[in-house]
Amino acid sequence: GAGGNVGGVIFLLLIQRYSYEKGFVIMGFAVICSTALSFFMVFDGHAGLLCGSDANEVMAIRIQKNNVDGSEAAQAVETNITQKDDTNQTLALRSAVSNE
Hints:
By secondary structure, the chain is mainly alpha-helical. It has helices spanning 4-17, 20-37, 56-66, 70-83, 87-98. Helix 4 packs antiparallel against helix 5. The chain is rod-shaped and about 65 Å long.
């Protein structure tokens, strides 16, 4: 799945080749570096950890799942619409909110 077995084998090879202390230090740096990279991951339609905003379709689904009342939904829609200029997404979101 997430590379746990491969990571275990690599760590085993590190501690066989170097001392336990140096193996753990190298593994620690690898974990810190890979964690730092997660701040820069962005998936289409979703906000990243540091920047970006969700697509209007994602906002509409989130509003529907959370059963937000009409005034809060309208405010969320207007806020998101002012941040984006994509008219197709805007029309889809307004349609989804008006169907509630």
